[in-house]
Inverse folding.
């Protein structure tokens, strides 16, 4: 961690320049940090597998600021975190254990702070936390949004606590079609391929997620999910030697000022926007407000790019698709194609790209 302002005049060893060095045994850092304690300072968030057989997931938050006078050492390891969390009346470290969910600490899953519901306690807003699974975060669950108040728990609160799904989650994001015989998945495939092949559509979940900022201008953070394996034709007996790329989907799920009573958010029906196409969903990224219209923008990447030779060729041109944020895309969940992107980034002019992928 380098504390600003930072000025580097030459190539240097980061270990010599760093103000704080955090050991890998503390956990995997969140892709996006936030103010969990509500004091206006950014806090550091990590997740690790722990417990017997590494069966549990532990979220560690190291608070920024003076934290009641507990100094940050230059070198932080897991033992320091454990010792501080166990001390009474301290405000430097909070840990939350998710029993039986050690798999969430795997590097292919996503972890990011966000302002999901703008709920304030004692006049302070506490950053919430997105945990999204590359496959599933739980049975039929794509992601959880954990309440920042459950992470912080208040001044001088206990440093260690156990996650309670009934009280500590703000949202449970349900995967788009959890059944292997999902009729909607077959219907989507029918928009791209012949019916006999569409009937063979199967999921090959490969989901990434990113907090996109505020794409609809309501003051809350929104999330973009992308599933590069929404539909796979790998097991289709009707294709013979033909290989079709996956059909991927990207979803924009907006923050909820008033979360549903049951906390369930369904990707397939509650998303503000869905984008779908062959070879879609290789990556997602927050871009900030690149066109200065007051709405944050986002990008969806492809898994592969090539030159399309005919209208029925599943090869797709354009490797990165940029969509501008807006207050409303229309219907409850608008479905777009890459042609609707505001900016398409290609690796070269179409004529200069060889045929095929």
């Amino acid at each position: 961690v380098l504390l600003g302002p930072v000025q580097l005049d030459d190539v240097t060893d980061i270990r010599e320049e760093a103000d704080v060095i955090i050991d890998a045994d503390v956990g995997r850092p969140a892709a996006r940090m936030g103010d969990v304690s509500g004091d206006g300072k950014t806090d550091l968030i990590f997740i690790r597998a722990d417990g017997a057989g590494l069966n549990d997931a532990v979220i560690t938050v190291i608070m920024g600021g003076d934290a009641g006078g507990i100094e940050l050492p230059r070198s932080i390891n897991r033992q320091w975190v454990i010792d501080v969390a166990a001390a009474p009346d301290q405000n430097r470290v909070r840990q939350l254990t998710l029993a039986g969910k050690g798999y969430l600490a795997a590097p292919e899953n996503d972890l990011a702070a966000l302002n999901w519901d703008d709920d304030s306690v004692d006049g302070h807003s506490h950053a919430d936390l997105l945990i999204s699974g590359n496959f599933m975060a739980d049975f039929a669950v794509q992601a959880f949004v954990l309440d920042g108040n459950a992470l912080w728990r208040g001044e001088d609160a206990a440093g260690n606590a156990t996650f309670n799904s009934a009280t500590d989650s703000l949202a449970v994001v349900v995967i788009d079609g959890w059944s292997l015989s999902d009729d909607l998945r077959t219907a989507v495939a029918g928009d791209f391929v012949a019916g006999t092949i569409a009937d063979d559509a199967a999921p090959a979940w490969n989901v990434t997620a990113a907090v996109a900022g505020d794409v609809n201008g309501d003051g809350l953070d929104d999330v973009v999910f992308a599933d590069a394996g929404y539909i796979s034709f790998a097991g289709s007996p009707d294709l013979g030697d033909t290989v079709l790329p996956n059909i991927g989907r990207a979803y924009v799920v907006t923050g909820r000022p008033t979360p549903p009573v049951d906390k369930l958010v369904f990707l397939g029906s509650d998303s503000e926007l869905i984008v779908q196409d062959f070879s879609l969903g290789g990556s997602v990224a927050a871009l900030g407000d690149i066109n200065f219209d007051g709405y944050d923008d986002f990008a969806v990447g492809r898994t592969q790019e090539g030159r399309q030779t005919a209208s029925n060729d599943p090869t797709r041109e354009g490797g990165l698709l940029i969509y501008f944020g807006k207050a409303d895309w229309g219907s409850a969940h608008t479905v777009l194609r890459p042609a609707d992107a505001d900016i398409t980034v290609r690796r070269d002019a179409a004529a200069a790209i060889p045929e095929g992928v």
The chain is about 10% helix and 30% strand. The radius of gyration is 22 Å.
